[in-house]
Amino acid sequence: MVTDTGVTLGADAGMGDTALAATDGAPFAPGQTLSLGDEQLTVTAVAEAVVTVERAVNGTEAAAHTTGASVGIYTYPAPVVEACLQLAMRLWRGDEQPPPGRKGLGREIETLLSPYRKLPV
What is the pLDDT of residues 46-55, one digit of tens each? Predict the structure, then answer.
């Protein structure tokens, strides 16, 4: 889900630009995924109203954007965030394999993600 921040670009951004001028930098923090047109970007740093980003993430393509383009922030459902945290904790501890006798992500994580799974066609 994309949340409208009320922030727009304060200057044109070319396809290769990684420092974007925003009308306000306050809503942004490193690690967030932004929505700018059809492109998704990851915030790597914020300095006042300049947002430094990694372009074209999550399979999107870099694009040029014009002054006044709306900047949104992706928000993820709490169960998805929790599943990611559990996976990160498992990897940090070195538990890369599921418990013996179990396949896949593990019962807890599969339960958290089950409402968001794509059904086979």
Answer: 999 999 999 9
